[in-house]
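Record format v2
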Amino acid sequence: MFKKRIAWLLLIAFLIITLTVSGCGGNNQSAGGGKQEQQNEATGTEEDVIKIGVFEPMTGANAAGGAMEVEGIQLANELYPEVLGKKIKLVIADNKSDKVEAANAVTRLIEKEKVVAIIGSWGSSFSMAAGPIAKDNQIPVVAASATNPLVTLGNDFYFRVCFIDPFQGRVMANYVYNELGARKAAIIKEVSNDYAVGLAKFFTDTFTELTGDPNCIVANVDYQTGDQEFSAQIQTAAQAKPDVIFAPGNFTESALIIKQAREQGVNIPICGGDTWEAPEFLEIGGKAVEGAVFSTFFTSEVPITEESEKFLNEYRKKYNQEPSSVAALGYDAYLVIRAAIEKAGSADPVKVRDEIAKTKDFVGAAGIITLDENGDAVKSAVLKKVQDGKFVYQTTIEP
Amino acid sequence: MKKKTITSLLIILAVIICLIIAQRTLDSFSLRILNLSGVYIIFAVSMNLINGFTGQLTLGHAGFIAVGAYTYSLLIMDSDLKQMNFFLKPLISPLDTLQLGFFPAMIIAGLLAALTGFLVGAPALRLRGDYLAIATLGFGEIIRIIFTNTQSITNGSLGLKGIPKPDNFFFIKMDNSLMWWIWVAAIITVVFHLLLIDSSYGRAFKAIREDEKAAQAMGVSLFKHKVMAMVISSFFAGIGGALLASLIGTIDPLMFRFTLTYNILLIVVIGGMGSTSGATISAIVVTVLMEALRFLDQGFLGLPELPGLRMVVFAILLLIVVLFYPKGIMGNEELTWSKLRRLFGKPFAAKEVNR
Amino acid sequence: MTLELFLQHLTNGISLGSLYALIAIGYTMVYGILRLINFAHGDLIMVAAYIAFYGVGIFALPWYLSFFIAVLLSMTLGIITEKAAYKPLRNSPRITILISAIGVSFLLQNLGIVLFGGRPKAFQVPEIFAKVYNFGGVNIVGVTFFIPVITVILLILLVYLINFTKAGMAMRAVAKDYDTSSLMGIDVNRIISLTFGVGSALAAVGGIMWSLKFPQLIPTMGLMPGLKCFIAAVVGGIGNVTGAVVGGFLLGLGEILLVAFFPDLSGYRDAFSFILLIIILLVKPTGIMGEKIAEKV
């Protein structure tokens, strides 16, 4: 009896805590931009500012990616703080690397913060969870680095400033065909990763077209996210005697695959996609990943446009390090929205959307952006190679 | 008996009034969490049937939820939407053109999940204790791995997006009709389980939990009742999965890893293994807490950001309940008026005397 | 398939299998004595790997010392876990202890995320383990030799401990019946702590070997190995140390050969172990080498 009463008291205490916390929590959560809001009140009424929402994974498994993207967005906001004579306020919401949270965050941005447009998110699945909400509320969203084609398909309010998986697959197929002279390829893909499955498919299509040989993919094996032992997959791929192995997937698993392949005496060149551009790829792979080639969005070694130069200088000044690709893309996403507001001459979300859709030959930090009818950027990709434990720029490939 | 029915009806009425008020006053963020609580009530109450009442620790719930979520999504999406989603590998016919309304899609989702429950339960429930736990966990993972690999049916790891929400509630068009579907389903789930537990089947389930050998000696068919509990449990898990898919609007196989099962188990244990009202209360408390405690991950009281701290708190909470309050909030009893009165009666009475 | 390739697959399978076997022994030990699936066993693998990582990385210890400390600390953690989370429940229903074990596993994983961060870390592999040897076209990494050797040494030590020492006799007595053995003057708590200590040390050795072979650390790394090695233990006949080794090899070889002969099924590789488990449980629930154990009523 006594114990039960304690249990009840605990429950009641919990409920009270919950209620108070959710009260405070509500405040906290809008407090991603809490300070900025207070500034609003100090500087003037809502009329004087235009709010742009940002939803990114700031915590959770993808926090690193989200943080890099936000760095780029904040830098752009500092360099270009005004439009139409009004200040632009960034309101940052954390989607916590979680689909449900991503939907919650976007709802909050639209309903509580009344943003004109939204930037985000790192991770295609979070963008897809947010998509319908933006569409229903007619608020335009520009993704910086979400490469899954489904993000913008069937959604007139979703755009992106990066290229999509099909293009990346095509780039890699062209590279291995032309530069490496490969005529036969094997694929080892992370089957539980949408990005890897998409890349593998478009690589296969283009490579088949180039070689004109329906049997040019000599082996096709899969693994699951989190696997660590790949010797059987590697041997199966190597046994088919391909000229190259295409292995799209997470950087950790990919690094282990390359490492194990080299240990097993498999010395066929291995190529992949933009996810490989992470310091852990080099740390885990060590000497084994030397010579690995992959496609990505941007390089800090060779500025592509004048805007790239400006971005690179300012970024190095502010953060004291080399920018990643996604930082440059976040920067571009902000600039595209700002330009659209300027052209629309108002902060009406629907008009802004129409202007974003018309974006053509826009000079961004990570290349020249032209949006196609789906709202996807058509732009150049760069190839990088691991040399002496560093990612080294190889070449730029035009669409 | 009559009094009990009236009280139950009153409670349901009160819940409905609360929902109407909630719908009018809450913003869509809070409504989302309210809906999520409803879905978790369905998950927790259904898992409680097999784990709590029948005493068979099964860890395959995420798999049944996945079956429900996928079935529902594939049935409710129109062919254009499907074509857009399946851009890598086309969906096999006849699924590519098949489209049903919300209610039939949800029911079929439940039935298919129940069928899966039968297919899993029939072999697995011959096992006991730890073996059963591991085998069902294995089945749950196998379902997820199959869904990852069968790209021409489930779209594999790309998942499905744009899953439509219902725009009517039994042919009545209204805003937030999904909230009504979820909560009506939750109420039906709770009432169904309360009635089931009171029936002769329910007593057989409890007899199996208390002592299998004795139950068998009394003529209870162990296998039949265990499988039955499993099938019913997975049916409701499937319904919940359908509602979850509809609520979130996008699903992929990674959502249904066994961490989802663990989360539901956490709710069941905190609520009290073998108490439907406990599971219900606990589902609401835990879902709200999961959201409310987010501040732990973001750094508080000057502490730096510590992503994951929230889940540490939940793990500790689970251990505290298991170690010190193994009965959870409700033990294996149900919430009744007389119990509430007894609980609050004494302190109130004491106060009056003091005055 | 050429002979050379088949031999390479076989070597890979044996190498993976011996790693599974090493961890499965620890599982089967604890289960044999306590009839408890220690869900946290897999997470001890993770903890040991991280301690070894920090020992070398931050405290700049030589690797062997760092490994030794990792084993010692994981052993302590295992004993504390038992005292805190399992001992108070010894007389509760089995389902409660299982849930408690799940809770411990959940806690360790999330503590890992908080303390070590969610991003993967690269484990520094000492040169001696990383060297690659070639035998007539078959390539073998250094660590591959060590794992079976360590497994065999530990196996011999364990068989000796269980069958030929006083403590081992007490362990077997406790496994058969706690109450009676405590009446016979056996300090049951001490024996259980000892079992957990040995089991956790085995998990730690397994964890270090695992990260030497797959040098990538994340807080959830113990999950899959934990499950698979439990399966290996069950397949071999739980409670039977030799059975665990057999089960481990069967699982490792099975996984590799599945992909080798049926590359189209490579996406189902993780499902293989679960399917094997279910088949074994249904056909021969006591496992390949298990003896019939009367269910405790």
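The longest helix of chain C spans residues 3-34.
Chain C touches chain A through 38 residues (CB under 8 Å).
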